[in-house]
Amino acid sequence: MSEQRSLPVPDGLAGERLDAAISRLFGLSRTRAAEMIGAGDVLVDGTAAAKSDRVHAGAWLDVTLPPPPTAPVPVAEPVPGMRVLHEDDDIVVVDKPIGVAAHPTVGWNGPTVLGGLLGSGHRVATSGAAERQGIVHRLDANTSGVMVVAKSEGAYSWLKRAFKERTVEKRYHALVQGHPDPLRGTVDAPIDRHPSGDGRFAVVAGGKPSVTHYDTVEAFRAASLLDIRLETGRTHQIRVHMAALRHPCVGDLLYGADPTLAARLGVTRQWLHAVSLAFEHPATGEWVQFTSDYPADLDTALNAVRGES
């Protein structure tokens, strides 16, 4: 059911475009805000306005907010290519292939780790929202590698706290364009949604604190293979930080990668793989580590760029 909201433009938004003001006031994307304005769902002092109109402090907004999206339900069916690396009474560790999301989200109709586990007869914790049961961290749909899911309620609480307190060691390998200088370093730059509202994220003043450590493993003529350790786990963090260094992941066209290089190497997604995950086991407290080999598409591309060098 739609919601009607009426409020004045606060002083801090004076001079902003109307779509930007609506985006910030209601936590919507700029694209969604522009759609609402175009549909006549936003009035300024009782009159329809254009998305590019500048607002002034105290102007009265009448906004018809869309109903919240219905939470999607996981489809319980096996996911081809998703391997279980480890399973016990508390956790299940999977090797996630590309094209698979961690859990259902609005707008995603593809396979999910959660649905794949349920469809293969695995039990998961019931903690968390129904569409995210047992999920304690995520990988992008087109990022492959190691992911852990909680099976017991105790493991869910333990692992959620461990990720929040940054005691989990998350390591990735990324093939990035060019050669980072220095070859080893740390990117400490806040991340939030890109101002364009197009689904990208970006380094943004006032964003969420984000820290990425990287080290060059191997340098090639056109690219470098990096070992990356994350302190935080923001959406698209590695992709955003590497792009901010002007060394985007090979194949990551969303973040400015060279399509010619991607085509030459046969890469159809970002060259990024979660190679290992280590943490204290929720039941025993023992330090455990799980690893994943490169999938075929990334391995082929790496051999190609190595052959060129």
Automatic annotation (TrEMBL):
This is Pseudouridine synthase. SUPFAM superfamilies: Alpha-L RNA-binding motif, Pseudouridine synthase. It comes from Spongiactinospora rosea. One of its GO terms (molecular function) is rRNA pseudouridine synthase activity. Residues 16-59 form the RNA-binding S4 domain. Residues 90-244 form the Pseudouridine synthase RsuA/RluA-like domain. It is an enzyme of class 5 (isomerase). Responsible for synthesis of pseudouridine from uracil. CDD domains: PseudoU_synth_RluA_like, S4. PROSITE patterns: PSI_RLU, S4. Belongs to the pseudouridine synthase RluA family.
